[in-house]
Specification:
This protein is an all-alpha fold. The chain has a single domain, classed as Four Helix Bundle (Hemerythrin (Met), subunit A) (Up-down Bundle), CATH 1.20.120. Helix content is about 55%, strand content about 0%. It is built from 4 helices and 2 strands, in the order αααββα. Strands 1-2 form a two-stranded antiparallel ribbon. The chain is elongated.
């Protein structure tokens, strides 16, 4: 499977690095979803924590989908681009049933907003994220790619530790 797994390919980008990160984000979301399904089938139990995103496998997947939506909305806001019109992420109670369809919607809505943005706008200025860390848009794109990668790694580790089969 190539990087462009969606039915429509993204447009040409003024900054090819942004196109690469958008497609890597798509790849990482889809890969996390596959691993999440394996973790669910293996009966993986998440470690106890006060973080509500880890209350269950469903809250974890809903968290990642919601964050992906938020990253693009933030980038559009700071670049003064139109609202990307990404639907709110499904609730944890419905995420298992609709995750694939939502990820399709999410990744499709991620493909176009940044296409015409000049490369220099990805680096300057920096903006405060909602969690009070300063990012340039390029760094937020990299953060968005790594977020599902980190959670996928956590799930793969738990599958292995709890006797399932990772990979």
């Amino acid at each position: 499977m190539g990087i462009e797994s969606s039915s429509s390919s993204p447009p040409e980008y003024a900054y090819p690095g942004a196109r690469s990160l958008v497609l890597l984000h798509e790849r990482s979301l889809r890969s996390l979803h596959r691993t999440w399904r394996k973790a669910k089938a293996a009966g993986v139990v998440l470690p106890k924590t006060d973080d509500p995103a880890y209350a269950s496998p469903e809250t974890l997947l809903a968290h990642v989908c919601s964050a992906a939506r938020g990253y693009m909305i933030w980038m559009c806001e700071v670049l003064e681009l139109p609202d990307p019109e990404i639907r709110t992420a499904p609730a944890p109670t419905e995420i298992e049933e609709v995750a694939g369809e939502y990820i399709d919607h999410l990744t499709e809505r991620w493909r176009r907003p940044l296409a015409r943005v000049a490369e220099k706008r990805f680096y300057r200025p920096e903006h405060s994220a909602r969690w009070k860390v300063r990012y340039c848009v390029d760094a937020m794109l990299e953060h968005a790619v790594m977020h599902p990668v980190r959670h996928e790694f956590q799930l793969e580790t738990l599958i292995h530790e709890q006797g399932g089969e990772a990979g």
